[in-house]
Amino acid sequence: MTETIHHLIEQYGLLAVFLGCVAEGESAAILGGFFAHQQVFVLWHTVLAAALGAFVGDTFFFILGRSFADHPYVVRLRRRPGFRRAFRLLNTHPDIFVLSNRYVYGMRLVGGVAAGLSNIAATRFIILNAMSSVIWAVLFSTVGYVFGLGAEHFVGQALMHHERLLVGLGIGLTVAVFAWLIARHVAKKERTRES
Asked: What is the pTM of this model?
């Protein structure tokens, strides 16, 4: 069973990092860095997959906002907590907003759509988004890699390779659940504030 999981991670892990980073991908980038430490991936491959995923995701949401402003999905996103604040920040400080939006958990999707609905030039958004994606991917993949160093030191080198992969998956799942709970709490506070 664990050999099958190990094989699946080796075969499709970077694709999973890419797809995870298209959405709200901090945990995917961290987990990719952890697996790079475990020598399942090469670290720069993880960084590249995370950066491309983050760039593609934000660009997709930008295009969604720019080209499909009246689509029911975009209209629903505009009603989400934090959208008005994101749109206001985007119009007052567009460069800072695009560079920093991905670091606020739960705001990447709303921020990308808000950028598409704003008057920021597409070329400007793409350049800033590319810079931010690379910095973000290096940061979170490195966090995962360093976490792998700490976990190996804490747990010891007695664990077999495939057992460390299962520990990494467990940690990744825990981080994802914890991040989801925080985002839910922040969204609830934002809804209360906007009411």
From this structure: 0.74
